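ugh finaly. both done.
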Amino acid sequence: MAKHDGDDGISRKRPVVEGFKCHETSRRENGLLTVLFHATLPTCHQEAIRLSSLSFDCREPSCGALEDGEEAVLLSDEDYQVDSNFFDNGYSLAGATGFKVWTGTRLLIECLAWPCAGDCSRLRELQQRISHGARVLELGSGVGVLGSYLAAIGSEVLMSDLPTLVENSLKKNIGRNAMTEVNDETFECPQWLSNDDAKRIGRGWAGCASLDWTQPVESQLTKDQYSSIDFIVASDVVFLRSMLQSVFNTVESIFRASTNPPPLILSFQRRDAKDGDESVSFTTVTGILNAMNDRGWSCKNLAWREVTVLKEDGGEDGAVKEDQSEVFVFEINLSNE
């Protein structure tokens, strides 16, 4: 796969969108510190829905989701909480990463909601469809930033994650960003999405459901929720090798159940800089491509960006250093046709 250019000769390297701003604030509730992640909406949508930004409760500051000059929350050692959900059924350390915002979320939002002059034709097509009532299933929604954002600009979105994330994060953040008054009958919740937790956010709708990738999809979602959707989206969900096959098994179940299999729009940040393709813990780009080829799927690189991340330097003092990495947005489809 060419990292920089597509077959059309257009560079896939995407600049930072100047109009899109994020920042963090904090507050204390019952002695515990909560981080709030804020993201502005495109001006064209602000005027239509009288909503300028979305905000999300997080347990920790974001990682790689803020640009230089954007306000960030820094926690002291005393501010970090013992994970009260550690012993929840099906919960894991990987699941715990869902309580914060990661690098791939920002790039995926920019790609789908903030058109740029240099975008390839396929990305421009996706932007149009996402903003005009597309049915979207998000895997590994975490605190709900991506799914809520796509709802705000016009999609119908079902966000999903482990039950612990749904109960302790997604429901709360959907409620935080929901419109307080929905009186017009044209704002009736879409039937496929309909449940007590689905809310109107901006120009679209957002709901949530528990989805464990190690269990059959059909036993967790309604048939409409996994077989009649337009897109699957996922951000930063395959960074560990142990997660890749579980995620792809879930996607394959959706492909098989769908008359028109939806594309998977996946963001992925490289975390294998030290060990490359020999990394024991982290998924690599080559690993993703091999896993897709084994299933007969096709992949397009829609966008990529260089990012600076903080990593432990391996010393005994636990110091961190800046390191360069890359984050990609891939489109994955059922076949190579």
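ok and the 2nd:
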Amino acid sequence: MSRSALDRFEQKQAQMQAQHSMGYGAPMGIMPMGPGAAYGAVAPLGAVFQQQPQLTGQELEDLEEKRRNEIPLWGNDTTFNMNPLLANRIIESDYFQSLQSMTTYHEVVDEIYHKCKNVEPWSPGTQRLPSTAFCLLTKLLTLRLTTKMMQGMLSHRDSPYIRAIGFLYIRVATEPKNIWNWFEEYIADEEEFAPTADPELKMTIGKWCTKILTDMSYYNTMLPRIPVPVERKIKAYLILFEDEQRRAGDNMTFVSELVSGLEVRAIYGDEDNDPAWYPAVVNEVVPPEEGRSSWPSVVVTFPEYGNQECLPLGKIEIPESITSGGGGG
């Protein structure tokens, strides 16, 4: 079953379920998909619902695979944790209703590429009309993105606005304790864009990501509150990031010494372990990605655990025998 056919089926399924739940508190145009679920595709009132198609074999496997890999949504499944006024204006807007015909992730990403020039929540000069960006963000939330889709958005090469809407999806509607895992890789990202309607007011993706992590106020709306324990951890990570940036600058002097087999110390952390220093062995140095980073990365192996990681240069501690001797080329 093709991806577009799969998505069309899911939309029809959402419509069928909505037929039985209209009038029970759902906002106009939004179709509940069951208790605790996110909202499905938008359909005009009075739409004719077709009989649910029967899927067998590979079609059912494809559908189950998509559901297994969806990023779980968190919080309010009516507003997706947005300001209620903004959420209602989005649902009522003609532009959002016009997106009903789009049933795949790729269609929405193409629309972002062609239509988005900022990521403000409101159209320029008004707090009555929702922006194109937030309408498309909401459309993506109704489609429910998979991990692979999100990875594609966050690293997209064609438009920083595709990337920014991906970050907003994570920031607005996923569980707060998982947000940093998505953002960490991009805090140093140097791609520039204009987040507001003023094309002269530019900032890097990295600085903008830091802003939406640490400031609930977002261009005349409010982002969801991050629970205090999670907020403290994110701020601690950002302090460590500043240290890593300084260390990366120092390490650049000796980067030519980072040859395969060199024993170093490196920082590792994950969702179960706070960042800490561990013995590591250098595999190779990876050149910086043009336009997105000033520093190379270093692939290392942690002998104690056997795992291999590609780390920012600032997460590497070069042996004092090299740094104190003025090595480097």
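summary for the 2nd one i guess: Residues 254 and 328 are 4 Å apart (CA to CA).
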